[in-house]
Design goal:
This protein is mainly alpha-helical and 120 residues long. The chain has one domain. Helices cover 54% and strands 0% of the residues.
């Protein structure tokens, strides 16, 4: 059996930006529960957003730090502040990139992981 070879289309700037944001949304969803190991994929996605003038350098640094940051369990608003920081960055990046749609897919699991919730 032979595999059919298809021609790969060159992704445009908007598609690459959307993919970078989706990758980072997934990472933020994981980091919401606990700090995660930052990867080269996260670094590449953030670098693309910077190169495409979607994210400011301080936003990139803040996101990079937040992925591995531990929420302060003793402070009641710590988790809220953490979620708001991610949410604000994604809203801004989507606005600057001109991408509409579900601004934070990862926020669907706020109270019960595994139970989808309609976006606010």
């Amino acid at each position: 059996m032979f595999l059919r070879v298809t021609t790969l289309q060159r992704p445009d700037r908007t598609r690459l930006t959307a993919l970078a944001i989706m990758l980072l949304e997934e990472a933020a969803g994981e980091a919401r529960r606990a700090p995660i190991r930052r990867t080269l994929a996260h670094r590449l996605a953030l670098a693309w957003l910077g190169y495409a003038s979607v994210a400011e350098p301080w936003q990139i640094a803040e996101f990079w730090t937040a992925l591995a940051e531990v929420a302060i369990a003793s402070h009641p608003s710590s988790q809220y502040c953490r979620d708001s920081r991610f949410d604000t960055l994604f809203r801004r990046w989507r606005f600057v990139a001109g991408i509409e749609g579900d601004h934070c897919r990862w926020r669907r699991e706020l109270t019960c992981p595994g139970t989808p919730r309609s976006p606010a």
